[in-house]
Amino acid sequence: MLNDASSQQAPLPFPDRPVLFFGGKGGVGKTTMAAVAALDMAARGRRTLLVSTDPAHSTGDVLQAKLGDRPRQVAEGCWAMEVDPEREADRYIEAVKSRVESAAPPRLLGEVYRQIDIARVSPGAVESALFDRFTRILEDEGDAYDRIVFDTAPTGQTLRLLSLPELMTTWIGGLIKRRRKVGALSQMWKNVAGSEATDLDNDPLLRALEERRDRFQEARRILTDPRRTAFVFVVIPERLPIWETEKAVEALSKHDVPVGAIVVNLVLPERDGGAGEDPFLAARRERQAVYLARISQSLGDWPVLRVALQDSDPVGVDALGRIPVLDTAVLDTTEEVVR
Ligand SMILES: Nc1ncnc2c1ncn2[C@@H]1O[C@H](COP(=O)(O)OP(=O)(O)OP(=O)(O)O)[C@@H](O)[C@H]1O
Ligand SMILES: [Mg+2]
What we know:
alpha/beta; Rossmann fold; binds adenosine-5'-triphosphate
């Protein structure tokens, strides 16, 4: 499913795309909406995998299920897993060290390890390890599922993550060039000196770099393909989250990541409050109408789905299943969608 590249055709409606990312400001309901969407798609007969990257295990809490590093079934047709970003970074560093161990001269190993340990704590290390894991999930699980839903971290971090494929391919491309140059020089030297030639095709570091580059390039192809990927922004009808979402949508477009929809969560349910309505609630409702109008105006190029504020926290498969966030019938028939 994920590997049928057909980017020449028109974009698909976002619920039909196999890879969905849910993002947005902290606490706006990303985890809840990603879980609702995953369960909704599973209920429509799509084999769905929900992937969370939140170390606080909130997906497990929301689904009321114990989740781990491997997919676990949580409902009919729906699996979920939690990826711990820090552990991914540690794992990645260990993998790099063991690759280097076989390639670097033993007397240099201590220094090389020190450099790798510095890389572990430098900015972007956790995100790039996480991205590496995302691409492996797409590769390994892509064929087993019709949909993969990623519940991502708050906006800033997500944006950095999504811009990584671009940065990474350039950076790795540079490293590969350097490695080839060093390899070619040492080969020349060895030819002159009469010792056996180094075999660049079997250079473990070069191979590792090239594999990584190819993986990031493929991930970038998936991420920017409007027939395969949609980024769904969750926002609430308040000033700052709207402003932040407008900025984020702009940034994603710059990286050619297709935005699929805007989910406006925590919308006060429509009521005819009448004369007896609590003045506080009436005022909130009025404020909200202003913000909803602003969302339609600035983000109305995408389907805008509204999700009502529930009277209690939506947790557990049953409660989540009652929230129709991706209902495609809703998409074309009701007021819930402002397009
Ligand atoms: N429509 C809703 N009605 C009532 N409560 C909601 C609704 N959506 C989410 N919540 C509640 O709001 C809180 C925050 O939701 P959630 O954890 O999904 O947000 P988040 O964006 O994933 O947060 P974080 O940025 O920390 O990951 C939770 O307690 C959740 O149960
Ligand atoms: Mg969350």
